[in-house]
Design a protein that fits this description.
Blueprint: H1 13-34, H2 42-69, H3 75-90, H4 101-131
Helix pairs in contact: 1-2, 1-4, 2-3
The chain binds fe (ii) ion (2 copies).
The site of one fe (ii) ion has 6 residues, from helix 3 and helix 4.
């Protein structure tokens, strides 16, 4: 079960709300992986990745605006990590997954692993730095 844990909270309500949604999307990815009844996952996967791209863009821009407003010194490096995440999401090869159940599951699984690892590390190691007082 992917969801917010006490240690993920930054104390900035709007940011925490957005991180909560990102964990929900990770859980939706897990649910898609676990869904054995769905024979063709291509449409769901496409939908999920585009939602992830949209939502992370929104979240990253809010975060970067906030960092700018507080004069955060490492804004540039932080934004570079956001751009790298976006590039990795865009790089998922969705053309080669059609009609192959095993391949689809492999893609969903690699999306899930990437997403969860990145999210947890980024929130704990990188996001927490701009909220440190
Ligand atoms: Fe961030
Ligand atoms: Fe964040």
């Amino acid at each position: 079960m992917y969801e917010m844990k006490p240690e993920y909270y930054t104390g900035i309500a709007s940011i925490d709300q957005e991180h909560t949604r990102l964990f929900e999307l990770a859980q939706e990815t897990q649910d898609l992986l676990d869904n054995d009844l769905l024979q063709d996952k291509a449409d769901s996967l496409l939908h999920l990745i585009s939602e992830l791209i949209d939502y992370t863009r929104t979240h990253f821009s809010h975060e970067e605006e906030y960092q700018k407003s507080i004069g955060y010194a490492n804004l540039k490096q932080h934004a570079a990590q956001h751009r790298a995440f976006e590039a990795r999401l865009m790089a998922f090869d969705l053309d080669s997954i059609e009609n192959d159940y095993q391949e689809q599951n492999k893609t969903v699984e690699s999306l899930l692993n990437f997403l969860v690892t990145w999210l947890v590390n980024h929130i704990l190691e990188v996001d927490m730095k701009y909220v440190e007082k």
